[in-house]
From TrEMBL:
Keywords: Coiled coil, Heme biosynthesis, Lyase, Magnesium, Metal-binding, Porphyrin biosynthesis, Zinc
Pfam families in the record: ALAD
Record: residues binding 5-aminolevulinate 1: 204, 216
Protein name (database record): Delta-aminolevulinic acid dehydratase
Role according to the record: Catalyzes an early step in the biosynthesis of tetrapyrroles. Binds two molecules of 5-aminolevulinate per subunit, each at a distinct site, and catalyzes their condensation to form porphobilinogen.
KW Zinc (keyword) present: yes
Residues of the active site: 194, 247
Subunit structure, interactors included: Homooctamer.
Gene name for this UniProt entry: hemB
GO molecular function: porphobilinogen synthase activity; zinc ion binding
Amino acid sequence: MNLKRRPRRLRSSENIRSLVRETHLNKSDFVKPLFVVNGENIREEISSMPENYHLSLDQLLIEAQRLVDIGIKAVILFGLPKYKDAEGSSAWQEDGIVQRAVRTLKKKLPGLFVITDVCLCQYTEHGHCGILAEGKIENDQTLKRLSKVALSHAEAGADMVAPSDMMDGRIAKIRETLDKAGHGDVSIMAYSAKYHSSFYGPFRDAAHSAPGQGDRSSYQMDIANAEEALRELELDIEEGADIIMVKPALSYLDIISRADQKFNYPIAAYSVSGEYAIIKAAAEKGWINEKAVALEMLCSIKRAGADIIITYWADKAVEWLEE
């Protein structure tokens, strides 16, 4: 028996395991999603996403300060508007909820990196991510609205805009619009490979963004496709994205890994609401250890190649890593 090579020697204690560990989670890896609503003194827990909340502006500021204090460097904002209409016009209003939230955060916490989700689904009465005509999404008409949304966020002070709609050509249109308006320093994180996933359910409850008719399969990606994802990622890079994203994360680790191998580019992964809710529910039943499973999942996302992890566990992960 040849036992000259014994891999267990490097597993014999926590000290040696930590020395040879290949993947390390850091608090700077995480972006925390926040849901902002109109009103005052509102901090309502989202039932399908425990320990995440609908926050009015005053409570948003308190929550953001808490995140800064524990070392979270970036947040991504999702807004719930006062009204919805066919084209989602409240999404680009100067006094819209996200625009007001950005101004509030940048005034009080200028060092916090503020990312804004750019889409129409929360703002349209039909719940789709674009302009709907005779049951179909009008791609190019949608681009005009999305660029207006992105510009309004940049004018409010957003550091980065994140188009999540999956319309063709939206990165190029938004980049052109921002540059022409003098916002060349505002970066774009593109939801490049966003799949037509069943893991979005809790988010759609939280954002009040479920489509009223049909589904999003004509613009979000088929869950079976990988080569298509690489084409989408490459297109967004060519159009001017600064960061490319894969969403969801856990079921698409292969896509994250292939993107990391193919592109020398920053990669974000969104660990979505369904991933969070499943682990939360199982932990509440006592079937799994939430901390251990969540950190294992986040580690797998980074090991696959993600540079940035958008996660509802961002704050808890920071606390766990410091224990």
